[in-house]
Design goal:
The structure is a single chain. The longest helix has 73 residues. About 5% of the residues have low confidence. This protein has 226 residues and is mainly α. It has one domain. Helix 2 runs antiparallel to helix 5 and helix 5 packs antiparallel against helix 6.
């Protein structure tokens, strides 16, 4: 916004200078210059405001991306711990079962996580001790679920969306900054034209500035607003 304010102040000073130094035969050019300066001042202020707004949205999106990424990693860590616990308790159950220690095997069954117990029951229904085609363990069953793993995937998807939005809004901010550069060029050319006493060169430079102004305003109107 500081660049926009500087351009607005410079536009005011140049307009005042143009009126003070104008000559009768160049009054129409002075009017064009004043019009260009006025439009450039307003467009620059608006473009700077929008660039600042989109930059703020982008920063917020990146912050949310980092937050949900951390949450996703936390859930992924818990999911890994759950899977490790399921594997350890299942291995203990298998060892007890093979050794004929039914009480120990029952002890391990009672220690299964509720999610894992569902998969274990479905796995036992396949008679894995006598059915060689049964899956190697409950974790390979379709019934095996891990809420923390599902939450990690969901949070990761949210983080990805926030990252994409951060990139998109940063690009929009950059678009407005580019327009501000075009407007600054138009402002510079208008200031340059006021240094000429001859109508011809002055008119040419003002015409170029006016074209840049129109193109910049067109871009500003086409760009999305925050």
């Amino acid at each position: 916004m500081s660049d926009a304010s500087s351009n607005v102040e410079l536009a005011h000073d140049l307009s005042h200078h143009g009126h003070a130094a104008g000559k009768p035969q160049g009054k129409w050019i002075g009017f064009v210059e004043a019009f260009v300066l006025a439009v450039v001042a307003v467009a620059t202020a608006w473009s700077g405001y929008q660039a600042s707004r989109w930059e703020g949205i982008s920063s917020e999106s990146y912050a949310l991306y980092e937050r949900y990424t951390v949450l996703s990693q936390e859930k992924a860590t818990l999911a890994g711990q759950d899977r490790l616990y399921d594997t350890v308790t299942f291995n203990g159950w298998v060892a007890a079962k093979v050794a004929g220690h039914e009480k120990v095997a029952a002890f391990y069954e009672r220690r299964f996580r509720p999610e894992y117990a569902v998969a274990f029951a479905a796995w036992m229904a396949r008679d894995p001790l006598h059915n060689p085609s049964a899956p190697a363990g409950p974790i390979f069953m379709a019934q095996y679920k891990n809420a923390n793993a599902a939450a990690a995937t969901h949070l990761e998807a949210i983080a990805t969306e926030h990252f994409k939005r951060g990139v998109e809004t940063r690009d929009r901010s950059d678009d407005y900054v580019r327009v501000t550069v075009f407007l600054a060029t138009a402002l510079f050319l208008t200031a340059l034209s006021q240094r000429f006493n001859f109508i011809g060169p002055r008119a040419v430079i003002v015409a170029i500035a006016a074209v840049l102004m129109v193109a910049s305003v067109f871009l500003v109107l086409r760009l999305p607003r925050a």
